Amino acid sequence: MRILVVCGAGASSTFVAQRVRHAAHDQGLDYAAFAGTEASLPIDLDSADVVLVGPHLVHALERIERDAATRGTTVVLLPPDIFTDRDGTRTLALVRAAVGSPGGPLPAAGETAPTDT
What we know:
Elements: E1 2-7, H1 11-26, E2 32-37, H2 41-44, E3 50-53, H3 61-69, E4 74-77, H4 89-99
Parallel strand pairs: 1-2, 1-3, 3-4
Helix pairs in contact: 1-4
């Protein structure tokens, strides 16, 4: 699965992408995560299965969802506290829930996601 993390300038999305990539690797998942910007989104959408949208881009969510729908790409608006997810497990749980992957319920803010055992 290819996960695109989008923010305004690409800085915060780089951190989120790196964390979710590590969390997926730790759970044995073959997921790739990469960062993009709102400006690069039209090009980046072509190589993404899931788009994680930074909470500060809520104003563009409807447009992003419309563009993603034409490509069959799932869109997830990240919660405002997502940057506190230091190990990426909560972000990974959001991805898995959005695409219907097993992994249990979404963790509440400040909690870590359950791991598969």
